[in-house]
Amino acid sequence: MSSAYITPHGGTPQRATPPDGSGWAAPPAPVPAAMPGAGGVGLWVFIGVVSMLFFLFSAAYLMRMAAGDWVVLPAPPWQLWCSTTLLALGSLTWQLAARTAGTAEAMALSAARPAHAAHGVLVGAACLASLAFLAMQLWAWQAMRVNYPVAANPSNSFFYLITGLHGLHVIGGLLAAGLVWLRARSRGAIALCARYWHFLLVLWLAMFGLLFLITPERVQIICGPFQ
């Protein structure tokens, strides 16, 4: 086992004696892994609860599809494609803000000020993209309710229910993001917002595919004929 040596000023190298007096240098203690904070654990729990909620709505959607009065939704209007793009941009901007905030905290205080301003701007841009997503969703509702009102068919009702519920979760995220933008702007808080927006994007893509790609014929191919 190797020993550690020190060289006094103007002298010969001597072996350094550790505090225990054994004459051998103890190996450095391993650095403990960082434990997830309460905010991170709470967010994962919340994501799990919301995922289960939408899973139950998806299961109800597929079971209701077996009824004879089911009418397949039309092709999604262009507003929904735009809103999907806006949500993806918001998720990407949150990720950039989290990375910029991490760079700012790793730099010296004088050098971090420009980066702090940069990730503050990114947080604001991500919130604006999410607000535009909600506005585009409302525009899509206006475009669809003329020929596909809520009560006309169960598929229509599910569309407004699922997209509206997703929009409520986006609004809740925006309220939390507003507090982050006005107060904390720390790397940890921004990273939690980024994680939540990634989840909202994945959830929206799953619901989008459920509403517009899943048809009774495809369900029968996968699961067998309806009883």
Descriptive notes:
The protein has 227 residues and is mainly α. It has a domain at 74-222: Cytochrome c oxidase, subunit III, four-helix bundle (Four Helix Bundle (Hemerythrin (Met), subunit A)), CATH 1.20.120. Helices cover 70% and strands 2% of the residues. The chain contains six helices and two strands; from the N terminus they run ββαααααα. Strands 1-2 form a two-stranded antiparallel sheet. α1 packs antiparallel against α4 (154-184) and α2 (78-106) runs antiparallel to α5 (187-213). The longest helix has 37 residues, at 109-145. The radius of gyration is 27 Å and the shape is elongated. Residues 1-6, 28-35 and 108-112 have low confidence and may be disordered.
